[in-house]
Automatic annotation (TrEMBL):
Protein name: Phosphatidylinositol-3-phosphatase SAC1
Group of enzyme by EC: hydrolase
Organism taxonomic ancestry: Eukaryota, Metazoa, Chordata, Craniata, Vertebrata
A matching Pfam family: Syja_N
Transmembrane segments: 57-75, 521-543, 549-569
InterPro entries tied to this protein: SAC_dom
UniProt source species: Myotis myotis (Greater mouse-eared bat)
Amino acid sequence: MAATTYERLKLHITTEKFYVEACDDGVDDVLIIDRVSTEVTLSVKKDIPPSAVTRPIFGILGTIHLVAGNYLIVITKKIKIGEFFNHVIWKATDFDILSYKKTMLHLTDIQLQDNKTFLAMINHVLSVDGFYFSTTYDLTHTLQRLSNTSPEFQEMSLLERADQRFVWNCHLLRELSAQPEVHRFALPVIHGFITMHSCSINGKYFDWILISRRSCFRAGVRYYVRGIDSEGHAANFVETEQIVHYNGSKASFVQTRGSIPVFWSQRPNLKYKPRPQINKVANHMDGFQRHFDSQLIIYGKQVIINLVNQKGSEKPLEQAFATMVSSLGNGMIRYIAFDFHKECKNMRWDRLSILLDRVAEMQDELSYFLVDSTGKVVTNQEGVFRSNCMDCLDRTNVIQSLLARRSLQAQLQRLGVLHVGQKLEEQDEFEKIYKNAWADNANACAKQYAGTGALKTDFTRTGKRTQLGLVKDGWNSLIRYYKNNFSDGFRQDAIDLFLGNYSVDELESHSPLSVARDLKFLALPIIMVVAFSMCIICLLMAGDTWTETLAYVLFWGVASVGTFFIILYNGKDFVDAPRLVQKEKID
């Protein structure tokens, strides 16, 4: 079968070349990478020199060019997630980045430091949990897309046939992709979340799978990547597929999430929630139409569920989204606004049933994908729910889990797993699996975009909003605030470098990493800390009179508070901003 990659590999290293040996049964292929010329060729095992240092690897993630030259990135550890349809799914858990160069003596001190920073960026991306692959199955496509393919598609390599939106190492594999004869060494890797469970209801065993595929188009971190780009790609776009496999029959329900598809931004500025800014000069309809043109082609009908607040700073975005849908006037697109926070205030999360009842008929119309044990397609999914909140994380995941449960109820009844009149919510053992899996999905998506676990997962796990859940949400919100303001610039740069949005040019006269910050932006935080410290010291070491002490306290107190407000007023100048590339073509 052409659509496979080699499963068992060995890496042989010499001073001149990397040799990647395919160890699958009956295979003699060896991929040779010249460390000097960077040439990639296909050879046989007898060409591996016996002096080479050998180690096992589990896949080639690709190559990347940094200041010191090219690097080879390989998967060194993996864990088995499970099997479905006789295909093994793996999570990559550790990687190694190998330099083509044998020495760094050709670099200046500045180049050495830049190269070290770039390597730290690549390592950071690789440290974010959620890289999955299979050597025999195409993880980038839904069951429905895979069922509607040509014989020519079936004969393509995994790399050729993959949905490019979800191949996170596409840029890293560019050299291998140019040579079809080495495609079996090229392993497409997705980023997101996968969980697989063998379940039982009424003594009937079935596999339940949840897959979230994170798009690598307009990828980034929470506050630096919002809205859409000029091509119509939405920030934090994730395709989530729920799969059931029972007695040879397969059922699938697909949903999507993505940032509000207009040109808007929300740059960090030290405020807890920076005010969203809608671009006043951009051609919003052009980007909006590009976005939905592609969504309609890929998924069919669109039912938009917009969960943002309908008052305060989020209101203009809700109004803009509603106006764009109305102006587009496409009958394939329906728009539903549901103010999640207003409807569920005072922990009244039972009121989510209002939304579910409102979209029930639409969900029945969209249906789901079902293929029987003979391979015959019984039903197709005619469209998707496209849900969003501001981040497309916490509120969005709650709603998606409820919609997915309703679809699963219908699927299991049709397959004969659930009896007539039985409710999925009454199956305690499965409900625990289901809720925890969706909460884990929320955490994975949130960590990849916002840097922390998701909020509101107590409801997803238990079906109830709890005081402990509120405390955990508060803690995660504080961590998000810190990361969004003081480390997300580095994280954004790392993603842009990894995905090829920025390419390193060692001949650049000026390094983008050496952007000097105005001295006042270094001095002001120090002054504030010193002034606040002196204020505390004056209180602890009271003078002869309280008048004298109060004078000192007032002086240093005013100095610290004044400096704090100067910093807050110039907040955007103190945050950790990206240095490599600004992907906001229209901002």
